[in-house]
């Protein structure tokens, strides 16, 4: 990318201010503005080097400004990329040609003659790839970008072919007529070929046999709608919920009606959201859809969009970010904080900042509405999210200050934001670098604990453990959702988050009764992390001690303990391994762990016999895996069966390591075609997966996917299994739909779900 990162400077400045002790003065500054002004004025000498914060930041920015040219349009580079694309196209390398033309389209200046040609060329590749819809769109853009009249006939023929291939005969006829009307405009040398092509199309249209094929893509999916209609006072949530406030929980969401499991209860557009830099070249910068073909910003080569609509929607913020996106996006969450202000505008920010809100629940406006629908109501909700600045480590506070100064300076140097936001008299209000930076800081302090990660589904393999396709979630963007931010955390939430483009869609994962609090999981979940890990993570990022059910009730700690459980050598009850993280625990002789029995409460070192048995199981397991790799399946099955037999005397059946051994055996059985026995092993795994992760968990759904694939093969020779197979498929469908929404099907091609 740009080759210069901001983080090393921020780290170096922080290091110098910590070493010289100057950082402690930061904590004495009370307001954000005081902190920013303090940082701007700091000059220290460390290791005989004089360090002036403001100068250092300006120097870095100047170096970054020098790189701006690498992010602006270039006719010459656009031409080069287009020519490369044409070469690849002739060699029938469609994918490469597509990438080259896309690059050319991003590089070409808005008025350039290369742009319509690259678009038209890309449409030819797309037609070849049978992506007719995208091809048609490119041709439309090409025509809109002054495609040469002398070549227009080529696009007419291609458009007609696209509609014909899509089976849209009505449209194909319309274009055919346009083709006929165009004949007299076709250059002489191309006329013969053109007439043959048009005659051929005419024939094909007349002979066309209609088929009823339908395409399902993400666009065909509807954005979900709220269960029971939208709440009138708190926007984006169901009527069945309301917001309350008290000393114990602060602002929080409670149910006022019964809501069934699987209901859509929040459907919220973010106030602001930023695409993560690693997806800049592959995803729409407005709605975060993954793109096959990109529609570029007309001013820079960094921002791409789905179409004109998404490009237009980016105007409020991209008009300022255009050309300096590479600088702004190098400071992570601070960029989102700045984005909030660019969308809001300075005047509205000042208005809300000065507004008197006594007697109302924070975030509610004149009309008694929270978060919408007008910009002023939405920003008020954002502005009143709790900032957690003073709970952050002093080093972090300093880094946020420095990042805010860096961004505010770049905006001041390179954009009209400050000029445009002066008041009517032409005087600057209080808008300058320190004031802008302090406003950015306030939002950073809120985002630290209120920002949401937007995730997207992707197909994935399961890491060699099975051949079955799975779905994974990747993080594509960071966003702020002021209504969803009103939910408190629980390690055992009663809702789950999913995304439709940038829209947050929340479903209930259990039946909710009137009076129940609606709680979200901020990250640490009781099925996936131990109590200790969760408490630590929540303290660090969210500054509170969790008192949810799994964090306080002993029965949860008991089940947690069984993830690494052994039979107690004293009483035969369940004992838990307290040592290193490997649930295989006792495998290494020189480790430091002990076993704590939950029944007789004895704490003891594992006996030599236990250590020996574990290492036996471990080596049998490894040999079994090796045999699978070599294709020696009968040996693999017998080694792994042996491991299970020996292991079942010492490991609790729900021990995570022991379940992995069982899973490997299932794979060996499946590979050797013994589907019936394989299903038996997987049933065992399923039982304990459900026990640990719960009946609605993604982990269980993935295990069911494996099971269904084997079951399908077993059912082919044993008709009695058909009912079971149908039930399993339904179960998979239900769990994935609950967790991810209906769009999950696009990401799995396996027959298991069809
Ligand atoms: Zn888009
Ligand atoms: Zn741009
Ligand atoms: Zn908890
Ligand atoms: Zn015991």
From TrEMBL:
Transmembrane segments: none
Catalytic activity reported: L-lysyl-[protein] + S-adenosyl-L-methionine = N(6)-methyl-L-lysyl-[protein] + S-adenosyl-L-homocysteine + H(+)
Keyword Iron applies: no
Major site of localization recorded for this protein: cytoplasm
GO biological process, alphabetically ordered: methylation
Keyword Manganese in record: no
Subcellular location, record wording: Cytoplasm; Nucleus
Pfam annotation, one family: SET
InterPro entries: SET-MYND_domain_protein, SET_dom, SET_dom_sf, SMYD4_SET, TPR-like_helical_dom_sf, Znf_MYND
Gene Ontology molecular function terms on file: histone deacetylase binding; N-methyltransferase activity; protein methyltransferase activity; S-adenosylmethionine-dependent methyltransferase activity; zinc ion binding
Keywords assigned: Cytoplasm, Metal-binding, Methyltransferase, Nucleus, S-adenosyl-L-methionine, Transferase, Zinc, Zinc-finger
MYND-type domain location: 284-322
Cellular component aspect of the GO annotation: cytoplasm; nucleus
Residue span(s) of domain SET: 230-523
The protein's role, per its UniProt record: Protein-lysine N-methyltransferase. Monomethylates PRMT5, modulating its transcriptional activity. May also act as a histone methyltransferase. Plays a critical role in cardiac development. Acts as a key epigenetic regulator of gene expression during cardiac development via its dual activities as a methyltransferase and negative regulator of HDAC1.
Name this polypeptide is given: Protein-lysine N-methyltransferase SMYD4
């Amino acid at each position: 990318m740009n080759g210069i990162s901001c983080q090393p400077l921020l780290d170096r400045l922080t290091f110098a201010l910590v070493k010289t002790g100057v950082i402690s003065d930061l904590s004495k500054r009370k307001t954000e503005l005081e902190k920013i002004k303090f940082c701007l004025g700091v000059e220290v000498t460390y290791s005989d080097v004089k360090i002036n914060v403001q100068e250092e930041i300006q120097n870095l920015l100047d170096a970054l400004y020098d790189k701006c040219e690498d992010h602006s349009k270039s006719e010459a580079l656009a031409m080069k990329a287009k020519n490369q694309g044409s070469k690849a196209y002739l060699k029938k390398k469609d994918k490469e040609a597509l990438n080259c033309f896309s690059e050319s389209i991003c590089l070409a200046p808005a008025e350039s003659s290369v742009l319509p040609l690259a678009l038209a060329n890309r449409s030819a590749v797309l037609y070849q790839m049978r992506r007719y819809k995208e091809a048609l769109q490119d041709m439309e853009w090409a025509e809109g970008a002054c495609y040469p009249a002398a070549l227009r006939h080529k696009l007419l023929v291609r458009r007609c072919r696209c509609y014909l291939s899509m089976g849209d005969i009505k449209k194909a006829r319309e274009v055919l007529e346009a083709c006929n009307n165009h004949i007299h405009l076709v250059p002489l040398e191309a006329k013969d070929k053109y007439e043959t092509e048009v005659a051929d199309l005419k024939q094909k249209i007349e002979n066309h046999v209609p088929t009823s094929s339908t395409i399902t893509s993400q666009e065909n999916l509807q954005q979900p709608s709220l269960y029971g209609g939208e709440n009138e006072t708190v926007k984006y949530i169901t009527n069945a919920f309301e917001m309350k406030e008290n000393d114990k929980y602060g602002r929080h969401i409670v149910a006022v009606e019964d809501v069934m499991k699987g209901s859509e209860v929040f459907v919220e557009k973010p106030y602001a959201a930023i695409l993560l830099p690693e997806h800049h070249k592959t995803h729409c910068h407005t709605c975060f859809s993954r793109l096959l073909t990109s529609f570029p910003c007309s001013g820079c080569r960094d921002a791409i969009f789905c179409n004109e609509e998404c490009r237009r929607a980016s105007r409020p913020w991209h008009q300022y970010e255009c050309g300096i996106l590479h600088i702004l996006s190098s400071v992570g969450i601070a960029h989102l904080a700045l984005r909030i202000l660019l969308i809001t505008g300075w005047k509205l920010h000042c208005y809300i900042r000065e507004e008197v809100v006594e007697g109302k629940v924070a975030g509610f406006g004149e009309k008694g509405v929270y978060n919408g629908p007008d910009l002023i109501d939405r920003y008020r909700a954002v502005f009143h999210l709790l900032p957690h600045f003073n709970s952050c480590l002093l080093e972090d506070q300093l880094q946020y200050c420095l990042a805010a100064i860096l961004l505010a300076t770049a905006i001041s140097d390179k954009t009209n934001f400050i000029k445009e936001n002066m008041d009517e008299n032409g005087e600057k209000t209080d808008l300058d670098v320190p004031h802008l930076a302090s406003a950015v800081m306030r939002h950073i302090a809120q985002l630290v604990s209120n920002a949401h990660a937007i995730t997207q589904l992707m197909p994935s393999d399961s890491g060699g453990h099975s051949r079955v396709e799975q779905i994974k979630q990747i993080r594509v963007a960071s966003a702020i959702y002021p209504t969803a931010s009103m939910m408190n955390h629980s390690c055992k939430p009663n809702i789950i988050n999913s995304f439709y483009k940038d829209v947050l869609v929340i479903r209930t994962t259990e039946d909710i009764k009137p009076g129940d609090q609606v709680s979200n999981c901020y990250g640490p979940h009781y099925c996936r992390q131990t109590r200790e890990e969760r408490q630590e993570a929540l303290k660090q990022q969210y500054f509170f001690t969790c008192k949810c059910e799994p964090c306080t009730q002993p029965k949860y700690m008991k089940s947690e303990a069984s993830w690494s459980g052994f039979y107690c050598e004293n009483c035969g009850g369940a004992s838990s391994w307290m040592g290193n993280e490997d649930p295989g625990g006792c495998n290494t002789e020189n480790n430091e762990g002990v076993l704590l029995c939950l029944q007789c409460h004895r704490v003891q070192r594992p006996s030599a016999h236990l250590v020996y048995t574990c290492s036996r199981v471990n080596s049998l397991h490894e040999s079994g895996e090796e045999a699978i790799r070599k294709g020696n399946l009968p040996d693999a099955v017998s080694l792994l069966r042996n491991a299970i037999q020996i292991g079942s005397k010492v490991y609790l059946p729900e021990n995570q390591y022991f379940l992995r051994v069982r899973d490997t055996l299932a794979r060996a059985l499946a590979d050797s075609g013994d589907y019936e026995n394989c299903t038996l092993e997987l049933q065992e795994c399923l039982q304990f997966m459900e026990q640990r992760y719960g009946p609605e968990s993604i982990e269980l759904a993935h295990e069911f996917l494996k099971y269904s694939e084997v079951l399908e093969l077993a059912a082919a020779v044993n008709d009695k299994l058909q009912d079971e197979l149908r039930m399993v498929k339904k179960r998979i469908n239900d769990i994935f739909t609950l967790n991810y929404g209906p769009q999950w099907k696009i990401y799995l091609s396996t027959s298991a779900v069809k």
